[in-house]
Amino acid sequence: MAEVVAIKPAVTEGPVLASQDKGVLRLTLGSPPANALSLATMAALQVEFDRAREDKSVRVIILAASGKVFCAGHDLKEMTAHRADSDRGKGFFEKTFSACANLMQTIVRHPKPVVAEVDGLATAAGLQLVASCDLAIASHEATFCTPGVNIGLFCSTPMVALSRNVSRKQAMEMLLTGETIDAATAKEFGLVNRIVPREYLNQVVNKYAQAIASKSSLVVKTGKEAFYAQAEMGLADAYAYTGRVMVENMLARDAEEGIGAFIGKRNPEWTDE
Length: 273
Hints:
273 residues; single chain; 10 strands; four-stranded mixed β-sheet; alpha/beta
């Protein structure tokens, strides 16, 4: 496969910084110390994810953050300021949670795999962001929590992503206590894939991303879409659906090429078709 060259210029200012190298788009939350999911930050992320959907040069997306906090969740100061509105902030709150729900679903439904690079605290909607990604790799210093219950605001929307990653008992433990868990516990719960020393985090995440980027983007897109779709089905429907997916996948040129290369003991040359 020919090397993919990024043609989109890097975004070096704003709440989300973007850069691209060899098919990997890196999106970095750039509003430390909290990297909160303000409306502006969510809008910027939405723009980047939407753009990457149609950009054939993007094969994998890394979601990272600058500073010591990965993401502290929604911008509570921004939201509190709108309590002075005539509707006590209801309209703004609806807009905020709608934007967040759309962003999280965009990540899950995105045709490109999304890898979270977590160093520091991921709390509330920040944890939701991590849980919505396809893979999550954390440093030993990373911590996670859903502390809404401590401030009178149950983490109901983060619960959606959390409960789709960990068991019900573990999700309820986090939601009801609001306690912070360390990276080792997060891995035990199934919230993250790997834990690595902070100094190697970027290197390991990039290795994962490049490994995925080397695959057929058509096959990866097919597989990701099927994974989340079948997870919402009953057993019989899931097998019927994935059987149809396998048939269509077998008819793809990249499946023919990949199987032929395996049998012929050579490296495949993907056309993403």
